[in-house]
Sequence to fold (270 residues):
Amino acid sequence: MIIDQYTQGYGVIGNPIGHSLSPLIQNTAFREKGINAVYLAWEITDLKACMMGVRSLGIRGLSVTIPFKSDIIPLLDEVDGLAERIGAVNTVVNHKGLLKGYNTDAVGALRALEEKADISGNKVIIVGAGGAARAIGFILKQKGLEIFIANRSVDRGIELSRSLDCEFVRLDNLSDVQGDIIINTTPAGMSPKIDLSPVSEKAFREGMIAMDIIYNPGRTRFLDMAEKRGCIIINGIPMFIYQGAEQFRMWTGLDAPIETMTRAVEKALA
Ligand code: NAP
Fold:
């Protein structure tokens, strides 16, 4: 691909950002679709200054990651209804100078679950109470599923369960719930601390769906334990690909090349 005066700029902002595979999937997609654009990773400290830069340089789109997903909201011109209700933006689209925020984490997680099973009427245990838990809890609640929030710090867990109007459960009482789905939304088990898991093996029961939204490593301790207990497992790669594919569609109006993006991530993680 030739970078020239017409090349459009995109990127991910966060801190830290060194672990991000977003540049890999988005540049793979731009290349495959023949779009004259580049996607970079920016580790930033001053969000306000960054957003002035985005406006003045005409950056066409951003992915937003930890710790800026909530702080970016007042710096945008408009926020989509779903992102506003979740309280987190992970995508910015520059519509001819007007910056609008969206949340694609929620639909990414939902698609990853729904392609594996019919989840209607299921009971879901969400482990964690941060931004990802909020996005996933919100969309699953909207689908009519029964949600339970489990979190290391009880206060934060109760706060999220109240805002989702669902129950809080202690991490050591998960087997009491008899859930159909359990989702790890915490970073416990993420590379390099791959020996961690936020729950013990008692949290899993046969036939349950266990999803970990961590994608590095592709097989976490959480998923290992789940598989040994007879669960259907889903790692963080599908959610990561689908949230990125939705961003690509919003920026370009085109369907993302999901298979090529997935192959690129699997190769990078191998
Ligand atoms: P966050 O807002 O910082 O929340 C982190 C949550 O994890 C908190 O509830 C925290 O509990 C809990 N936690 C942290 N360390 C823990 C440990 N050692 N044991 C038990 N609980 C622990 O983070 P986030 O934005 O929700 O992101 C969480 C993870 O999701 C990250 O690993 C991120 O990379 C991943 N993610 C993946 C995708 C994807 O597409 N696959 C998308 C978004 C996020 P306390 O309240 O007790 O501190």
Remarks:
- The chain is about 35% helix and 20% strand.
- The first strand starts at residue 8 and ends at 14.
- The chain has two domains: 8-103+238-269, 106-235.
- The CA atoms of residues 125 and 182 lie 5 Å apart.
